[in-house]
């Protein structure tokens, strides 16, 4: 829809003014990499990360505000499982969340029928998770 100059100016005047923020750093590409700097509260971005254990990893952030330049480490730990998944690893001990109704899970497992399954993407950790023992995942066809 085309507007005259007067209509366009009226539309621009009616549009709410863009609010100014105190962001002093540069804009970041990915939303998930943002964390406020603990010193100046500008955006900080991930520089590197590493796994410390199977359930703990550390991420190094750097502030995007050139006047601040703060660099800090954030530790993230898996603290509970909401759903253990179909291929649990007995070598990793992560508590199951208290909201899970264990009695209902037992009833469902005891009364569930079995259906054929072939692992495609995950190697089973123990042979008792899949009938017939551990199988190798199928290779994806080349395109």
Could you give a short description of this structure?
The chain has 143 residues and is of the alpha+beta class. Helices cover 14% and strands 18% of the residues.
Give a verbal description of the structure:
The protein has 143 residues and is of the alpha+beta class. Helix content is 14%, strand content 18%. The chain is built from 2 helices and 4 strands. A hairpin with a 6-residue loop joins strand 1 and strand 2 (43-51). The model has no long low-confidence stretch (mean pLDDT 78).
Features:
143 residues; alpha+beta; 4 strands; 14% helix
Strand/helix succession: HEEEEH
Strand order of the largest sheet: 1-2-3-4
Helix fraction, binned, reads 10-25%
- On the 0 to 100 scale, the average pLDDT is 78
**Which sheet architecture does the biggest sheet show?**
4 strands, antiparallel
Which stretches are low in confidence, meaning pLDDT under 50 for 5 or more residues running?
none
- Helix count, per DSSP? 2
What's the gyration radius in Å? 26 Å
Strand composition percent: 15-25%
Amino- and carboxy-terminal Cα gap: 44 Å
Query: How many beta strands in the DSSP annotation?
Result: 4
Shape: extended
Question: Helix/strand-derived class?
Answer: alpha+beta
